[in-house]
Hints:
Layout: E1 3-4, H1 18-30, H2 33-46, H3 51-67, H4 71-82, E2 95-101, H5 107-113, H6 123-133, E3 137-143, H7 156-166, E4 174-177, H8 183-197, E5 202-207, H9 211-220, E6 226-230, H10 246-268
Parallel strand pairs: 1-4, 2-3, 2-5, 3-4, 5-6
Helix pairs in contact: 1-10, 2-3, 4-10, 8-9
Amino acid sequence: MVYSAPHAAFAAPLSTDGMFFSLSKTADVLAAPLTWTLFLWILALALRRRPRPAWILGLGGLIVLAVFSFEPIAGHLVRWTEAGAVRTFSPATTYDAVIVLGGIVDPAAAYHSGELEMVDSAERIIRATALLRQGRARFVLLSAGLTSREPDEPSEADRLAAYLREEGIAPDRIVTESRSRNTHENAVESARIIAERGWRRLLLVTSAWHAPRALGCFRAAGLDPDVLPVDHRATDGSDNTLLPRAAALAMSTDMLRELLGRVVYRIAGYSR
C-alpha cells in the first residue's frame, strides 16, 4: 500500500506562511522580461504627450524583449543557472530513498485530458524509475502537492505514484507527500517523513537548473542528500541563431525566475 501524507486541507498548517507563498508567486511574474517590457510600454503610453521620454521608454521595452529572446543570451543564462548543480550520486550506493520533487505534471493539460501529462522536467521521474528498477534505491518519496484547484483532482504526487505502479514499481516502495506547494515545503515535508521512517542514505533527483536551490532547502531542513541533477538544458551554443525566438524568451524567463528564487529563499532563510 502506498504511504501518503495527509492533504493540506486535513492537516496542520505548513511552516511557510501564506504571505511568503503569495509574494513568491508575485516575484515569478516580476522576474519575467515580458513583464518589464509591458511595464515600459505602459509608461510610454502614459507619457505619450512627452514624445522624447515616451520614445525612450518604448525603445527600452523593445530592447528588453529582443535581448532576452536571443538564443545566445538565453543559453548563457542556462549555463549560469546550471553551473552550481553538482552531481554527488554514487552508483555503488543503494539509497534508502530517492526523492523526486514536483513540477513534472502539466496541471491544466492533465485536468483537460484526464491523463498524466508531463512537461520538460519529466526526466526527474524517468530517472527515478530506472534507479528503482536497478535496485539503486529501496523507496521513492514523491514530494508534490496539488496540481489543480479542483477539489476532486489528485495531487501531482498521486498522479506520479500511479505512473510508477503502471511501470511495475511495487506500491509498498512508493511514498507520497501531497502537502507541499514549493521547494521549501518539499524539503520540510520530506524531512518529516524521512525522520518517521528512519531513512539515512538519500538521493535527491531534480532538474539541473533547480538543483542548487533544492539542495539548499534540504540542508536548511537538516538533511544533506546526494544529488542527481537531470533535465540538463545547457548546450555549447554552436547551433544558436541571432534571430529572436519565443522559445529563447521562455527559457530566459525560467532561468531569471530561478535565479531570483535563490535570492528570495536565501533572504527568507529557506536555503543554505
